[in-house]
Amino acid sequence: MSDQNSQQPSHTPISSLGEFGLIDLLTKHARHRHPETVKGVGDDAAVLKNDQELTVVSTDLLVEGIHFDLMYTPLKHLGYKSIVVNLSDICAMNATPKQVTVSIALSNRFSVEALTELYEGIHQACINYDVDLIGGDTSSSKSGLVISVTAIGKVETDKVVYRNKAQVDDHIFVTGDLGAAYLGLQILEREKRIYLENPHIQPQLADHQYLVGRQLRPEARQDVIEILAQQDIVPNAMIDISDGLSSDVLHICKQSNVGCCIFEENVPIHPESYNMALEFKLNPITCALSGGEDYELLFTLPADQAKKLQDTAGFFDIGKITPLDKGNLLYGKSGRADQLIAQGWKHL
Amino acid sequence: MSDQNSQQPSHTPISSLGEFGLIDLLTKHARHRHPETVKGVGDDAAVLKNDQELTVVSTDLLVEGIHFDLMYTPLKHLGYKSIVVNLSDICAMNATPKQVTVSIALSNRFSVEALTELYEGIHQACINYDVDLIGGDTSSSKSGLVISVTAIGKVETDKVVYRNKAQVDDHIFVTGDLGAAYLGLQILEREKRIYLENPHIQPQLADHQYLVGRQLRPEARQDVIEILAQQDIVPNAMIDISDGLSSDVLHICKQSNVGCCIFEENVPIHPESYNMALEFKLNPITCALSGGEDYELLFTLPADQAKKLQDTAGFFDIGKITPLDKGNLLYGKSGRADQLIAQGWKHL
Question: Does A138 sit within 8 Å of B19, measured CB to CB?
Answer without folding.
Answer: no
